[in-house]
Amino acid sequence: MADSGRLHTPQQALDSLSNGLEPLPLEWVALEAAGDRVLAQTLHARHDTPPFDNSSMDGYALRAGDSGKVLPVSQRIMAGQQSAPLEEGTCARIFTGAPLPEGADSVIMQEQVETRDEGVFIPAGLEVGNSVRLRGREITTDDVLVRQGSRLNSAALGFLAGQGFDRVPVYRKPRVALLFTGDELKLPGEPLAPGQIYNGNRFMLLDLLPRFGAEISLVEQVPDTLEDMTQALARASRQVDVIVTTGGVSVGDADYVRRALESLGELDLWRLSIRPGKPLALGHIDQCRFVGLAGNPVSSFVGAWLFLRPLMGGLQGCEAMQALPEVSARAAFSTETAGRDHYMRVTLHWEGDGYRAVAFEDQDSSILRSCVNANALAVIGAHSQVTPGDSIRCLLLVS
């Protein structure tokens, strides 16, 4: 059971999340469905790229030693065509990507030649290899194409397609259950009774988690009772890899999530020394991991980036997702912190010689508007004072 009397650091929370964490099993998917998936095996080149010497532009293929002469055109070579050996004392009309004919060692672009009745005049001084892309220039057979643990972006997909891969091995997406607690929460479009609010966390997390590579398998609004929450956690733990809740992990009379978790599994860590997001709860029910985010929308937003992103990355074997990238910036604001680290929502602007961090004026954990244009979190240590121009550490919000 977690020590409920102390506040933990974000690093201790990350350590708790990574304890015993292993990537999920691999699965093979069609290349067109592999965007942003994490590669589960290192893939090697099946052939040289390019697979043959070819022209890098439209022009004429020839022997460089024949430059300075008028050469008859002996053949025309289009991309995708097989060329014949180049006849002595001739050139070949060639187009971008077409194979260089045997005997040719250079290409001159069409704008640099003069057309004559007897052929084309090639200016003198042409060098061997001019405008030729040699076989294997990009990669050779058996070289590493993309390494295990890489997240497949559009360029990687094109690279693999160029090697003939139509299916690739990737780690299975983490299956996530989203459980929302709070009888005051309603869905947009429903009428609000006095004291009720719309559930913004639901739609924020439904967007964020897939960006982190998760598959949302279950979404449920759970009534504010210990029995209902216990039953919901038990059902979800049998279906998914991770349960994420918002609200109900503080110390109020209706905060049943922690008690329900402890009745079914283990609470590994509770409460962080950060602002916002102090009431974070981490635990597990058998093999299913549990992350309880605070109900305040900014706390859920910050907690998702700080803890759900690395957890999803670990389950997918992606080291690059284990920590948010950092930059230094000059503060464009003043602030003073008390006994907890403050993760301020800021917008970074590049000013030629570095980043300038502009903070939303109201940094209260209930003000989700502070996150709308934020592209970074400024990490201000406990008992710190920041004035405009001070260098601060910022975590980039990139999925």
From TrEMBL:
Cofactor (UniProt): Mg(2+)
Gene3D superfamilies linked to this entry: MoaB/Mog-like domain (3.40.980.10), MoeA, C-terminal, domain IV (2.40.340.10), Molybdopterin biosynthesis moea protein, domain 2 (3.90.105.10), Molybdopterin biosynthesis moea protein, domain 3 (2.170.190.11)
Recorded superkingdom: Bacteria
Documented EC number(s): 2.10.1.1
Gene Ontology biological process terms in this record: Mo-molybdopterin cofactor biosynthetic process
GO cellular component: cytosol
Keywords: Magnesium, Metal-binding, Molybdenum, Molybdenum cofactor biosynthesis, Transferase
One Gene Ontology term of the molecular function aspect: metal ion binding
The protein's annotated pathway: Cofactor biosynthesis; molybdopterin biosynthesis
Residues covered by the MoaB/Mog domain: 177-314
Catalytic activity: adenylyl-molybdopterin + molybdate = Mo-molybdopterin + AMP + H(+)
The family this protein is said to belong to: Belongs to the MoeA family.
Role summary: Catalyzes the insertion of molybdate into adenylated molybdopterin with the concomitant release of AMP.
Protein name: Molybdopterin molybdenumtransferase
